[in-house]
Amino acid sequence: MNYDIKTTELASAGKQRIDWANRFMPVLDSIRERFQNERPLDGLRVAACLHVTTETANLMKTLKAGGAEAVVCASNPLSTQDDVAASLVVDEKIGVFAINGEDTETYYKHIDAALDMQPTITMDDGADLVSRLHSEEANPALLEQVVAGTEETTTGVIRLKSMATEGVLKYPIIAVNDARTKHFFDNRYGTGQSTLDGIIRATNLLIAGTTVVVAGYGWCGRGVANRARGLGANVIVTEVIPLKALEAVMDGFRVLPMQKAVQEAGLVITLTGDIHVLRQEHFKAMKDGAIIANSGHFNVEIDIPALEKLSVDKGKARPYVEVYTLGDGKKLYLIGEGRLVNLAAAEGHPASVMDMSFANQALCLEYIAQNRDNLENRVYDVPESIDETVAQLKLEAFGIEIDTLTAEQEKYLNSWEMGT
């Protein structure tokens, strides 16, 4: 077994945290128990490029229980929990290629190391692994062995759909991110809570009374805006899509162009999935002491080179917080190098939320194993039956019962004859 981690000495602490997370992941735990008995993933080799966290560790354990040979590398240089990586290597004998704080060169070296296991399935969070596999530098023979893959996040799905549209995607991908039990809950409640958790841990900022600008009102932006309002913030939303902007207004938020919004902001959070949402003109318009954070997948949402160009000095204000001093003496604070703040400065989503996301991942791999010969080279939605199964299992874990349709109701919903 090959691996590259910070140290194996942290394994005991990592195992303790993995076990704690598992207590809040009953759906994935029930799938792992079934997988252990049925072994639906026998013969599959899975290369996963995910945030190496306690929740991911429980997913990797589930894949191994199902019969898969699996390795995992980091999908973000700052998201790896080194003790978790150690436990996966020492206690689970799963290859891990991830070190918290690794540089860009090491990041891609680790992706290549994961691909060296010649996967038949890829599991991605941001599509960096898939992109690497499709690059000119990659060994074409590796690509030929892959039968399908899954994608965990919005940014990755956007990239993969672009590849499919251009006809360059060489194998089918299931967009786990787009499962209703994923983006309704993970993106809204998970990102909403964990983003503010990361900001508070990094800054000790009192959210109540702070003017918070939320860039983007997709599921992640909705979650952050609502959680910030719940903590007493004055929330302003910025958008480029009229329908989403209108929804934010109807939800009770102020909506402004970014150039106007940042003039009032004590805290700006980007969650758009796009590039340079915060630019030079915005930095110039910000107040002294404004804090900047990103909870989109890539740090390109913030034009950091432009911020550095405007600055006459750069230093460390706190762990995870850099201070940029502009030419006029104004200071701006950037959290976690502009990377995913919930993972760069905290622990990511609560395990209870990731329970559903990773249950979808595990069941989608089972679906691929059963249907790989019938899939085309495009991006697929998660089968509705998997979404419904995950929702039902989560309700059962909560001890919640719901009604079922009567035969009469079923007939009525499937007929057209009966009117007023």
UniProtKB/TrEMBL annotation:
Matching SMART domains: AdoHcyase, AdoHcyase_NAD
GO MF terms, alphabetically ordered: adenosylhomocysteinase activity
Top EC group: hydrolase
Record-listed substrate binding positions: 53, 125, 152, 182, 186
Gene Ontology BP term (one): one-carbon metabolic process
Entry's EC annotation: 3.13.2.1
This protein's record includes keyword Coiled coil: no
Keywords, alphabetical: Hydrolase, NAD, One-carbon metabolism
Record-level GO cellular component terms: cytosol
Reaction(s) catalysed (UniProt annotation): S-adenosyl-L-homocysteine + H2O = L-homocysteine + adenosine
PROSITE patterns recorded: ADOHCYASE_1 (PS00738)
Keyword NAD appears in the UniProt entry: yes
Metabolic or biological pathway, per its Swiss-Prot or TrEMBL entry: Amino-acid biosynthesis; L-homocysteine biosynthesis; L-homocysteine from S-adenosyl-L-homocysteine: step 1/1
Domain S-adenosyl-L-homocysteine hydrolase NAD binding: 187-348
Cofactor binding notes: Binds 1 NAD(+) per subunit.
Cofactor(s) this protein cannot do without: NAD(+)
Pfam families cross-referenced by the UniProt entry: AdoHcyase, AdoHcyase_NAD
Alphabetized CDD domains for the sequence: SAHH
Family: Belongs to the adenosylhomocysteinase family.
Annotated protein name in UniProt: Adenosylhomocysteinase
Protein species of origin: Geodia barretti
